[in-house]
Amino acid sequence: MVFALILTLAASFGSVRQIVPDWLFDAVNPNDKTNLAPYRVLHFIVIALLVIRFMPMDWKGLKSPICDPLIKCGQQSLRVFCVGIFLSFLGYFLLTISSGALLTQILISAAGVGILCALAYYGDWSKKIDKIIKRPRKEAPIAGKPGEKMVA
């Protein structure tokens, strides 16, 4: 995290930029989300390893109502990801046509998170309903003579 902070600050402040070697600075810049820089992958891996190492699987906090939306979104990750891509374009469009003020950004982000959470809860509910409703199975025909009509 400190490494990423230093590299991010190096892009904005000349005094920090002088500390960072050119080859390292050029490897991680431009620092935008479009380019999957190696330090972004490293950052993700480090956070994942820290969570795996220090969070027990039976941690009671995971059962709290605060974590429930995160868990539901994780269980419905493909659905949430696909709709999230669409919502990111929609949010970007709305920000470009609006004032782009902080309140507008917060409202658009909150609406997007709310939609994704609602979608995850709907997907979970839909799977439960599918399990409850059992589709009728076709009965195997009773063996008889060919051409003979069956009477039930």
Task: Provide key terms for this protein.
about 150 residues, mainly alpha, 2 domains
What is the structure about, briefly put?
The chain is mostly helical.
Write down the secondary-structure element order: HHHHHHH
Biggest pleated sheet: none
Low-confidence stretches: none
Number of strands: 0
Secondary-structure-based class equals mainly alpha
Helix share, percent: 55-70%
Strand content: under 5%
Count of discrete alpha- or pi-helical segments spanning 4 or more residues: 7
N- and C-termini, Cα separation: 73 Å
Principal-axes geometry comes out as elongated
Number of domains: 2
What does this structure look like?
It is a single chain. By secondary structure, the chain is mostly helical. The protein has two domains: 1-55, no CATH class; 59-133, no CATH class. 65% of the residues lie in helices and 0% in strands. It is built from seven helices and no strands. It has helices at 2-12, 14-17, 22-28, 38-54, 68-75, 77-97, 102-132. Helix 5 crosses helix 7 and helix 6 packs antiparallel against helix 7 (102-132). The termini are far apart. The model has no long low-confidence stretch (mean pLDDT 83).
Secondary structure blueprint with pairings:
Layout: H1 2-12, H2 14-17, H3 22-28, H4 38-54, H5 68-75, H6 77-97, H7 102-132
Helix pairs in contact: 5-7, 6-7
